[in-house]
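Q: I'm writing a short explainer about Protein translocase subunit SecA for a general audience and would like to include a description of its predicted shape. Could you first generate the structure from this sequence?
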Amino acid sequence: MPALISRMGKRLRRLIERPASIELTRYEALLPAIGELEPELEKLTDAELTERAAKLRREAEFGDDQLIEVCALGREAARRALDERAFDVQLLGTMGLLTGHVVQMETGEGKTLAGALAAAGYALQGKSVHVISVNDYLARRDAEWMGPVYRLLGVSVGWVEPSLTREERRESYGCEVTYGAVSEIGFDVLRDRLVSRVEDLVQPEPEVAIIDEADSVLVDEARVPLVMAGSVDAAVADVEVANVVRRLRLGLHYETDSDGRNAWLTTAGASVVEKALGGIDLYGESGAERLAAVNVALHAHALLTRDVDYLVRDGKVQLINASRGRVAELQRWPDGLQAAVEAKEQLPATDRGEILDSITVQALLARYPQVAGMTGTAVAVAEQLREFYRLEVAVIPPNKPNIRVDEPDRIFASPSHKLRAIEAEIRKVHETGRPILVGTQDVAESEELAEKLAKVDLPCVVLNARNDAEEAEIIAEAGKYGAVTVSTQMAGRGTDIRLGGADGKDRERVAELGGLHVIGTARYPSSRLDGQLRGRSGRQGDPGSAVFFASLNDDLVLSYAPDVPDGIQADDETGEITDPAAQRQINHAQRVAEGVHLEIHRNTWRYTRLIEHQRTELLKHRDKLLRTPLAAEKLKEAAEKRYEELEEQLGEEGLVQACREIMLYHLDQLWSDHLAFLTDVRESIHLRALARETPLDEFHRVAIPEFRKIIPTIEERSVKSFEEAEFTEKGLDLAASGVRRPSSTWTYLVHDSPFDSNFEQTLNQVRNLLRRKKS
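A: Of course. Here's the predicted structure. Afterward I'll give you a sentence or two in plain language.
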């Protein structure tokens, strides 16, 4: 009876402390059996260990006996290859992953090894595994780091990154376990959807995805569709419009919504713009094209900030991925906006493109029959993981108790008061020799703070999008005695901060002083990001502390809870506020921000489900065209005489490929046109809402009939192209026949906010038009 009461008490405690978490009892019960195998496995040679792992390949699914064997073999392989014996909690994480859950393990608890052992376990079941990371650096690092463990278990491993050729990618995807950033794997999916020869495909059919930093990928990245575009011609930026918009002032000439996603001209602003552009009527029929240029230039001017949303480096505009704090390599904004930003910065416009295809992270992961993940902050988004991915969270206890001290927020009346207090805090802690990590919101803030510290003889190392190539080295040394590190977004940095630095030389000295001190310069729009920054301190039972500084004039409050209650008083000298109402206001702003982002995710999911269903149906048809002679059969049926003449000239195989090229070109082009059509529908859908029609129903009503026209149109256009095509001895002349594909492709970074629930932009445009008509 006492034992039963103890178990019930333990379960009740876990339920209270970790809501939405699955029970770990099944896995904990297997730990003794795993431990009992250690002496036996230690006696095996490396070859014998590999041979024993190979016996698991005969098992189609893993029950408890197989979980025990995988964990025991993995622990031994890690001990030999890395000189690391996996802790019991790491094995709990491995078992949670192997049974299809998202495991929550705190920073520094060894998620990388737990993930590698789970990936090896799936591979030993004969399944192809993708370990999906948030960036290319972590993908390569983890594949190389864990490589010796995989080899001892007889499992092949590779990775993909932007620099790889198509052949190198194919080789990496041919491994049993492949590491890659979510964007890189997604873009390879999109590239494969554009090939016209089977041998050009690089990815096999997906089977298992293990997602590192799962909350960042599954929740934050889910709002960023991956978009592939093809070069059409040189973009033409409206420099005249850019120069006019540059002179406009917020509040007088234009307004923006509270969350900074939309901007629109006021009546005064429209008048100024019309006069500056030669007296045109922006809202008349003849002004439609100029109005579009003004809107996109206004977006670039009002909503995109240099050193926050993008950098200008080497004469180019480079986007910054907000959720990672890194430059988004080879990515750009959709057409018009990219050119507008380039005009704003007085740079030459780059090539214009057309969208060829897109995929959301949610749709990308839906391709995998089995999905699991790991992160340090999963419970906070447990409901979203269940709603959107049908994934449950398993909270793994730390190997050692967390003794980090999380201090209450320090709140100030203004950002200037806050900045002075941060500077004073850094000086005070630095004088003791404790290492300090300062987490800032963006590049501009990190550099401003670094400049201020330098002026008062407090040198620091800065990590932001300008130098993210040096990330590992900077983060690894952030725990050294006396170190001060200023970094943008810490989510997904993926490198542990060890007390005493990478070599641990001064570990005991730093630990005695209190360990790493983390300072947040503002609360993030998500409590998870706050937790990820705090979690950089106190790893593996180390001492440490964390504190956030905040202001009632921070962007978070101004954007999501600007109506601050009256009567909140600040200290006259320091500007610090101790009234609990201030803390409640900041917490409220963060909850509102989380709600807004959830609604964006939910809307993205609702509206893209239909698009993904249509894409899946069209992909089935594309795959038939790619892998069978279907295209040749269709064109022979429609133009038999010409077909027979060309067959004599080109041979059967050459003509079949030519027919395939023609049909695939038109399929891809029509899908691109369909996406453009759906974008137009999206931009006008709220006008239907004003007419009391349901936007979602209207979207379906319009989109479905248009999609049904695609396959018949493919055949009609293909027949015409075939009849007019020019053929040479080498086959179809693509350029002369008008079926030439883009000479280059690139990717778009789009923070999708389809069908914004408050549809402020549409309403304000309508209101503005009505005001003008009345006047």
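A: For your explainer, you could say: The chain has four domains: 1-230+361-395, 239-350, 405-592, 628-733.
Q: Perfect, that's easy to follow.
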